[in-house]
Amino acid sequence: MKILVTGSAGFIASHTAERLQSMGHEVVGLDNFSDYYDVSLKQLNASTLNSKGIAIEKIDLRFTKQLQLLPTDFEYIFHFAAQPGISTTSQFEDYLENNVIGTKNLIDFAFKNQKLALFVNIGTSSIYGIHATFDETVPPTPVSHYGVTKLAAEQLVLESSRLGQFKACSLRLYSVYGPRERPEKLYTKLIANAFNDIPFPLYKGSETHLRSFTYVKDIVDGVLSVIGKEDLVNNEIINLGNEEENTTQQGIEIVEKILNKKIELQIVEARTGDQLRTKAVIDKARKLLGYNPKTSLIEGLKAQIEWYQENFIDQQHLEI
């Protein structure tokens, strides 16, 4: 199949594009190479994909004229591109334009693809709010601009499936980590600071926050399990994550154990909109997709540390 992956120079999307290509699909990626975080990391991901025959077009979804440069014979669209996370440097307009306007423009582009079998929106557990411990039937109560705009994007996509314009589903992901994770996220930053003997800034009270930390391979398994199940998943919202919960403190201790090194912590003010607990309820994913995440936190963190060491310590490719 011919498949479009948005945000393909980013963390989870780059892994998804790579897996799709290994499955024999023709993959086209697009990314706007935003400077929300160090662009050199995206360029490293893009270089990895390019070496495997995956083209990445520099296209910004906020601008419809740029989307006109793409062909219109895609059979699947996996929509990862977004303004991510909680950041004091991002304004509401950044989330609105990238997550809502960008998604609407992609939907309009999707209408032109007559062979389109399924539009897969990548959502987030942030949609649920402070406590993301529910199944998909619970009304969402997001507490951040990110969560609010990702909910709006999700509903825009599902509007099209409800109206019968094309088949679509939305997958809500939980606390994904692993190789290529963004540099401001917990584990990449924790690992980088440990290697570089820099105190790690820990948000006040966050050491007790509970998370369904989910290894990226397990997430990609879930995301790609929708292929061939277009009728089954059409108009559905599905949680994807690990049922096992760990506190931030437990995660820190696991990294310390793997590195055999104590990490100095620097307590900083708590962030507004940070989730207190996420626990993936994946009964629906198990039933519809046969989803079964298997990677333990220690196994996943060993792989992430190896990736970091290979790319940022041994080879000195980049600095995070």
UniProtKB/TrEMBL annotation:
Give the Pfam families listed for this entry.
Epimerase
Coiled-coil portions: none
Q: Which positions carry the signal peptide feature in this UniProt record?
A: none
Record's InterPro entries?
Epimerase_deHydtase, NAD(P)-bd_dom_sf
Question: For the NAD-dependent epimerase/dehydratase domain, which residue ranges apply?
Answer: 3-241
- Family (UniProt): Belongs to the NAD(P)-dependent epimerase/dehydratase family.
Q: What is this protein called?
A: Nucleoside-diphosphate-sugar epimerase
Origin: domain of life: Bacteria
Cited PANTHER family? DTDP-D-GLUCOSE 4,6-DEHYDRATASE-RELATED
